[in-house]
């Protein structure tokens, strides 16, 4: 298991924990990105969206300042019956989006980007978790940052 993931799970790294929920149209089939949105509705075209009705967006995270520095980002999606984590690098820029959170396999950064170079996108998530999300399950989202560390 990644060292930063272990630190976030133990509460030893700066993190923000909030809720969102799944939706019947979630496919989590995108191979490049993963998105969490405040939108209450998801279409099948939003194949990177893994949760909606989020309590927070990228610019509202408690760890927003840590995202502007060098470090590792961990995003944990926990539906109770199943969970998974995505690990990447900080975008080295403070996100400002008030609507969504995006993690990318690429190194493209916009106002919603909280992680780049992630180890897996929406399509790589545990399929039991995706099934729970498709069933509309409430989820606990944790975004943690290990400053100054590079993952793997």
From TrEMBL:
Full protein name: DUF371 domain-containing protein
Protein species of origin: Pyrobaculum neutrophilum (strain DSM 2338 / JCM 9278 / NBRC 100436 / V24Sta) (Thermoproteus neutrophilus)
Domain of life from the UniProt record: Archaea
Annotated InterPro entries: DUF371, Mth639-like_dom_sf
């Amino acid at each position: 298991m990644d060292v930063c993931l272990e630190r976030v799970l133990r509460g030893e790294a700066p993190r923000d924990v909030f809720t969102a929920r799944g939706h019947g149209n979630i496919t989590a089939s995108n191979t490049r990105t993963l998105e969490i949105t405040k939108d209450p509705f998801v279409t099948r075209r939003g194949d990177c969206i893994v949760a909606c009705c989020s309590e927070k967006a990228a610019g509202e995270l408690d760890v927003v300042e840590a995202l502007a520095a060098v470090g590792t980002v961990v995003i944990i999606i926990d539906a109770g019956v199943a969970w998974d984590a995505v690990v990447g690098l900080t975008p080295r820029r403070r996100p400002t989006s008030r609507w969504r959170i995006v993690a990318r396999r690429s190194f493209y950064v916009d106002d919603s980007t909280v992680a780049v170079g992630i180890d897996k996108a929406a399509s790589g998530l545990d399929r039991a978790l995706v099934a729970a999300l498709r069933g509309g399950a409430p989820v606990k989202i944790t975004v943690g940052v290990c400053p100054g560390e590079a993952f793997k």
